[in-house]
Design a protein that fits this description.
- This protein is an alpha/beta fold.
- The protein is 48% helix and 11% strand.
- It starts with 5 loop residues before the first strand and ends with a helix.
């Protein structure tokens, strides 16, 4: 075994080996296919943390002719330490054993073994031959039962047979494995050989610290997105004769575009932080992340009640009929008007620019022939953006890299009214102080409250990873 622990992922074709490699290495460039025999050559996938390789997983072809390979090994009369090297020398040009030679090559070089089987199918004599080959190699070895569906009636047979050939056994679904399940698998690897204990413990510590760093970066990314969105302000000339309603609509549109794009950019940063390049989560139709940020449905789901929405419509000067539609559950209009950053149709409620001069109506201001929008004065937007960021984070961290079906996520959002709604009073006070600090020009206070929010969010993200 080299100083960098190396494990070959071996097994029968189409048992999920590549999915296991992809999930363990957090590398979705691993070719995963339902077609048997897609992997024909070994390929190493190093795990890098801070630019340093800490562990290496090798994707291997499936066994091609295990009966012939096993027969040769059983007939071997030489030194056990030389058996693999001699097998590879003799059969390297044998096309009937090409794949067997390929998968045994890293074992001959000292790699440990992670044997993968699909536990949803029955045990066969071919599987027993493969297990015996791996036992005869003498390499440290673990068996993984990678159930592709909910079928479990064959598990006892697999487990009984595995106990005869392997140092450790684990159930591990590569399509659903969480961070904690991957750490548990690494802990099990320590038990397969005493010589591996120290080096694998170092790997686990590196993984743990890396995820702690990612949570800190995630909290900082979310906080910066909130700051940018809530601090936004813009102004435009508004000389006498200007169509104020049209100008308000233009400023409001510019603001909603800015915040929507800023939110999307933050979500993509989270995606990259957790090494997803193929991640294409198809959210359920009920997912709040499918809704437009400024849709009334979003606000109702993540915080505003029907009464709040009616009040928001009334304060914005919207038609009374729109408010009544809300009461009838016909929620189709936007509630951006409830945000301090902009307001629509206030001219219908207050006549004359002179009456508006120097005053703010939910953040919209007319002063010295300038119309200004922002900054936001309603903290509700903070919670909307925050809840959506946490929901997106929860999807990203729970999406296994080996998953390729892109099926609709079953996120349970229909029962969840946002994360912040469950926070303690003290935790919500952190958000409140952060929001109030943004309204001031004291940069020192702003930085202090930003740091406090980052720390609190980092703790909340850690809690989410345990659930």
């Amino acid at each position: 075994m080299s100083l960098i622990p190396e494990f070959a992922i071996v097994g029968h074709p189409n048992e999920g080996k590549s999915s296991v490699v992809s999930t363990l290495s957090e590398d979705d460039s691993v070719r995963v296919s339902a077609v048997p025999g897609e992997t024909t050559e070994c390929r190493a996938f190093p795990v890098l943390i801070d630019g340093r390789e800490v562990i290496r997983f090798i994707d291997t072809p499936g066994f091609q002719n295990p009966r012939k390979t096993l027969a040769w090994m059983r007939a071997w009369q030489g030194n056990d330490q030389e058996m693999l090297t001699e097998f590879l020398r003799i059969h390297r040009d044998d096309s009937a054993l090409h794949d067997d030679c390929a998968l045994l090559t890293p074992l001959a070089a000292g790699a440990g073994i992670i044997f993968v089987v699909d536990g949803s199918r029955p045990l066969r004599n071919m599987d027993k031959a493969e297990m015996e080959i791996l036992r005869l190699t003498g390499r440290p070895r673990m068996a993984i039962i990678n159930c592709k569906d909910e079928e479990s009636r064959f598990l006892v047979d697999w487990q009984n047979e595995f106990r005869k050939h392997f140092n450790s056994i684990r159930l591990f679904n590569a399509n659903k494995a969480t961070y904690n399940q991957r750490i548990a698998l690494l802990n099990s690897l320590k038990a397969i050989d005493q010589d591996l204990e120290e080096v694998i413990e170092t790997v686990i510590q590196a993984f743990t610290q890396d995820w702690e760093n990612r949570r800190q970066q995630s909290a900082a990314l979310i906080t910066t997105m909130l700051k940018d969105s809530l601090n936004y302000r813009a102004s435009a000339p508004c000389p006498p004769g200007t169509d104020e309603e049209a100008l308000r609509a233009k400023l409001r549109s510019a603001y909603t575009d800015f915040v929507t794009k800023r939110e999307r950019a933050a979500h993509q940063q989270l995606r990259r932080l957790f090494k997803h390049t193929l991640f294409n989560l198809q959210l359920s139709e009920q997912s709040i992340l499918q809704e437009d940020l400024f849709a009334a449905t979003t606000w109702k789901f993540l915080g505003l009640s029907d009464e709040d929405l009616i009040w928001a419509a009334a304060m914005s000067g919207a038609a009374v009929g729109a408010g009544m539609d809300v009461l009838a559950a016909g929620i189709s209009f936007g509630v951006f008007m409830a945000i301090g950053g902009a307001v629509g149709a206030v001219g219908a409620a207050v006549k004359g620019r002179d009456l508006l001069s120097g005053r703010r109506l939910l953040g919209m201001k007319l002063d010295k022939q300038q119309m200004q929008v922002g900054p936001v004065t309603n903290i509700q937007l903070l919670y909307i953006l925050l809840d959506r960021a946490l929901l997106y984070y929860s999807h990203v961290v729970s999406w296994a890299h080996g998953r390729r079906d892109h099926a609709t996520a079953r996120d349970g959002e229909a029962e969840k009214q946002g994360y912040a709604s469950e926070w303690t009073t003290e935790e919500r006070k952190v958000c409140d102080r952060f929001f109030k600090a943004l309204q001031k020009d004291d940069l020192i206070v702003q930085e202090q409250e930003e740091d406090a929010l980052v720390d609190m969010l980092q703790a909340k993200l850690k809690e989410m990873s345990r659930s």
